[in-house]
Design goal:
Strand content: under 5%
Order of helices and strands: HHHHHHHHHHHHHH
Structural class: mainly alpha
InterPro entries: DUF347 (IPR007136)
Shape: elongated
Radius of gyration: 23 Å
Number of domains: 2
Helix content: over 70%
Organism: Asanoa ferruginea
Keywords: Membrane, Transmembrane, Transmembrane helix
Largest sheet: none
Protein name: Putative membrane-anchored protein
Mean pLDDT: 83
Length: 399
Amino acid sequence: MPIARTSGWLTKVPAITATFWVIKVLSTTIGETFADYLTVNVGLGPAVTDALMIAVLGVALVIQFRTRRYTPWIYWLCVVLVSIVGTQITDFFTDTLGVSLYLSTAVFAVVLAVVFVVWYRQERTLAITSIDTPRREGFYWGAILTTFALGTAAGDLATEALSLGFRNGTLIFGGLILLTWLAARAGAGQVLTFWIAYVLTRPLGASLGDLLTQSKDLGGLDLGASRTSLLFFVVILVLVGREQLLANRHGVVAKGDGPLGGRRPDYAWAAGAVAAVAIVGLGLGNLGSSQSEVAALTIPDQQSHPHTRLGDLTRFAVIATDVQTMVGRNDLAGGKARVKDLEVSWDDAEAGLKPRDPGTWHQLDDEIDAVLTALRAGNPSQADCAAALKALVETLNGS
């Protein structure tokens, strides 16, 4: 039997509007790029990053549960953090435990179905507008976390196993969301279409982020992860700030009304946010490409490596060869510092390279991990480092 509504509680989630979906897609990309930044660029590693993000999410959810009404800033902070943790859960299963994407996608789909079944048996409703008790909110965030894990697994399956790539992924997942919206307009169940769209926004956000960040030789717009994250963060701040203003003035149920609200203004804000991302992204991407071309003119020609199904791997081979030379001189400290460039550049190019030839990508990824492990050991051995680098350079040159 459903529990009684807690005194003073109002619905704890935002109205489902156009700006809701824009913020959701952008926050998905922010979550993924920020986790990658902490893991690779800052150098925390996956274990420390996972533990840190889970701890921060726990604190944020405590604050969210202690509120008595929809508070935009804390709600969307929780969404970003849940997107990070959901992605990390899938990555742990696939990268650490070696679970196939087919299996992980199926498992998370079953888990989500179980969450919905238990939620409905307990509450007799799955309506988003009914999140007005602590237990219902617990089910809601459990479902949100599972949708991110499922969306990550399904998105990776589509782009990697099916070799769709992020350009096709953006079009396909965007098209599926459009079809879901049309189904909702045609009378399909609102609860069902909401959750389908919610799952699909995770791979859409990842594909869109990769489209903006990847270099042009990999099919992207070459905006870069840092500038993409900053651009999305600014747009999110503006939209969430508007949400907070409207929620303070009108409350969550009526936030679409009033002098600044209404359906048409909401569509206008959503369209403006999308246009800003497109215009600024294209402009900064062209600027970045021009700067790269100028910089390339000042770099001495390196030995060109053959094009493979992964593309031209010259930039990775050059770094690996530099590290190999340092290790050959027994300069392990210098090699450890230089290999950071290989780790960052390889991670940045993952979305563009991996769908082209997943088997070769995984082989190289494992060999790069072996080099990193050898150089970052507490007491690194020159022989171990040299052996790991020899295998990596041979694969890069002959893959």
